[in-house]
């Protein structure tokens, strides 16, 4: 075993079994993997990944390793790391610093340990690696070509750095590629949030009032699937355009202060802070369930819940019951962390196939364009989105039409 820090290497076979399963359902990433194995495009490159450490991200790590890269993996959230997967990766020669339920101090130590490897490329999910590389670990930029960012919250943080002219190396906004957000944020979050809630609660969604905070890409998916499961859906928003979109999609829209009275299940997906706080908990029905799927655990205020509670206890795995001073019980799922990852297995495999094909292409793109790239935030070219979409369509047995020369001329295309 390399100098990895994981919970238990004897879990490796269980982890490898899960990783083998996802590998069967990732045709787009597998197509890239075949090219990677042939051309060894990442030979000599060290890649540090801070990601939700579960089977699909593990398969991405192994794909990059198959291209010749030395891959170092750490988590991007203390509760989303799966110990068998960490063990499986170590068994395959990947260095891992992560265990499920690590403390905040351990989490930061793991990120630092990963950066000690002086990466050429980083893959970030939420911006914690980038943050360290701009604060305490500027030394670890020594060999850095650049990196890619997986999620919306990480992009917000990168845009803030770019605006202040502080972004120190090129970053690719993988989240903003069509083959990422249109599928992962919308359909991925839409399915996996309900998977996490349903398997943890063993309750129905049909007949319940579900309040979804935020009608961005994730919120649209969560609302659409809640409706499909038979719920009455209320959306809360701050953007009037998103709000009117929600109305036209057939949902009720109102402020959280009012929605708090009606909801049976609350789901926050805003990327913002303080969406559900004391004033909302005090309005809620006895037995209301709160969960978050935004990147950080600051959307549903656990601090407020603790302050206004008499006592709390574990009601079921991943569900804490808070007995409020007014006598009502409010349930909080997964400590207010990403419910689909902390209380489930994350997005469906076929969807992450698209996201991680884009991640693999981002890594190749950084290496191929090292000389031209500047310290700024980049989008991957549309051709790469089209390439991934084409592989995926083909693997699913779909064909589409192509433009004739006459049509191209008519449309003014080359
Ligand atoms: P988005 O930017 O498309 O949508 C966010 C929406 O929240 C916007 O419409 C915005 O107007 C709204 N909003 C902001 N503050 C609000 C407030 N105080 N009250 C009500 N609405 C508010 O972002 P996206 O892609 O939907 O991502 C949302 C969050 O989910 C981010 O933190 C992102 O990193 C995370 N994410 C989580 C995933 C998961 O697996 N759970 C997957 C992908 C993204």
UniProtKB/TrEMBL annotation:
Annotated coiled-coil segments of the chain: none
Cofactor(s) recorded in Swiss-Prot or TrEMBL: NAD(+)
Top-level division of the source organism's lineage: Bacteria
Cellular component per GO, a single term: cytosol
EC number per UniProt: 3.13.2.1
NCBIfam families according to UniProt: ahcY, PRK05476.2-3
Protein's name according to its UniProt entry: Adenosylhomocysteinase
Encoding gene per record: ahcY
């Amino acid at each position: 075993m390399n100098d990895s820090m994981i919970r238990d290497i004897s879990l490796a076979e269980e982890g490898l079994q899960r990783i083998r399963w996802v590998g069967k359902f990732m045709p787009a990433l597998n197509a890239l993997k075949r090219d990677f194995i042939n051309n060894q495009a990442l030979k000599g490159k060290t890649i540090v990944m801070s990601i939700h450490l579960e089977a699909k991200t593990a398969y991405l790590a192994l794909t990059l390793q198959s291209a010749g890269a030395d891959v170092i993996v750490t988590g991007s959230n203390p509760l989303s790391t799966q110990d068998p997967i960490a063990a499986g990766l170590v068994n395959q020669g990947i260095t891992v610093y992560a265990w499920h339920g690590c403390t905040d101090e351990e989490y930061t130590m793991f990120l630092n340990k990963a950066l000690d490897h002086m990466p050429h490329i980083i893959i970030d999910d939420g911006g914690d690696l980038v943050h360290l590389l701009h604060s305490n670990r500027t030394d670890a930029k020594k060999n850095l070509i650049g990196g890619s960012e997986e999620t919306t919250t990480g992009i917000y943080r990168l845009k803030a750095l770019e605006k202040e002219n502080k972004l120190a190396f090129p970053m690719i906004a993988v989240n903003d590629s069509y083959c990422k957000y249109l599928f992962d944020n919308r359909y991925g979050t839409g399915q996996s949030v309900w998977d996490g809630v349903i398997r943890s609660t063993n309750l129905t969604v049909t007949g319940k009032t579900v309040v979804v905070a935020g009608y961005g890409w994730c919120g649209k998916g969560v609302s659409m699937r809640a409706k499909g499961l038979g719920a009455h859906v209320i959306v809360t928003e701050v953007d009037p355009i998103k709000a009117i979109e929600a109305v036209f999609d057939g949902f009720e829209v109102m402020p959280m202060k009012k929605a708090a009275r009606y909801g049976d299940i609350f789901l926050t997906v805003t990327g913002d802070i303080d969406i559900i706080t004391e004033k909302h908990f005090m309005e809620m029905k006895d037995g209301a369930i709160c969960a978050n799927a935004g990147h950080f655990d600051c959307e549903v205020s656990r601090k407020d819940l603790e302050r206004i509670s008499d006592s709390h206890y574990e009601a079921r795995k991943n569900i804490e019951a808070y007995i409020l001073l007014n006598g009502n019980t409010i349930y909080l799922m997964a400590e207010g962390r990403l419910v689909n990852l902390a209380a489930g297995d994350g997005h469906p495999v076929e969807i992450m196939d698209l996201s991680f094909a884009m991640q693999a292409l981002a890594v190749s793109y950084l290496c191929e364009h090292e000389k031209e790239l500047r310290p700024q935030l980049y989008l991957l070219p549309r051709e790469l989105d089209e390439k991934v979409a084409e592989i995926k369509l083909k693997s699913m047995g779909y064909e589409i039409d192509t433009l004739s020369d006459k049509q191209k001329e008519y449309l003014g295309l080359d």
